[in-house]
Amino acid sequence: MNDSTNGTGHEAAGGTGDGAATGLTGRTPATAAAAAPEAAARVWAAMSFLVLKQENRRSEVEEALGMSFFRVKALRRLLTGPLTMRELTASLSTDKPYTTLVVDELERRGFVERNVHPDDRRSKIVTLTAAGTAAAEQAEHILSRPPHTLLALGPEDLAALDRVMAKLRSPAPQGPPGR
Question: What is the distance, to the nearest Å, from the Cα of residue 162 to the centroid of all Cα atoms in its chain?
């Protein structure tokens, strides 16, 4: 994609427009600070569009695996190793009855096994089967594939975006903006 828009009608980061994507060039610190929330909102909208709508990977995963994205999320959480039902519930940010429903279905489909915890018979441990591991890895493969528009960026744009993303991954200061 050679134009400087991101598909939302807004200038993409690294574009060649009025400087909005490059730090509000030519503005006073006070005007730049006042415009920062607007710029952040535009960037966030562009990022959300890219991740959630432009290439709808959630739907692609649901279609490929024949299950809801939430069930796929449960499989992906188990890739790191077995979890108790309580740990899986917390990891999914849901409630116990819904986790039980999800695990019941995954168990019926042969993706997980549920066994009694060896140290606490009141607790159950959920483990991926080989089929569950394959399904979770397939989902990871689909979800980790970079979008076409990102692959189309040149090396300089990718390097600039990589620097910005590194800053975004750093812990944010606590408190309201401007403090």
Answer: 16
Task: Specify the DSSP class assigned to residue 51.
Answer: I
Sign of CA dihedral 146, 152, 154, 160: negative
Instruction: Domain ranges for the chain, please list them.
Output: 32-159
The length of the chain in residues reads 179
Helix 130-144 vs helix 69-77: crossing angle, to nearest 10: 110
pLDDT in tens, 47-65: 888 887 888 889 999 999 9
Please tell me the distance from the alpha carbon of residue 39 to that of residue 24, in angstroms, as a whole number: 9
- Give the CATH class of 32-159: mainly alpha
CB atoms within 10 A of CB 88: 23
Dihedral angle over CA of 129, 133, 138, 139, nearest 10: 100
pLDDT the model gives residue 176: 61
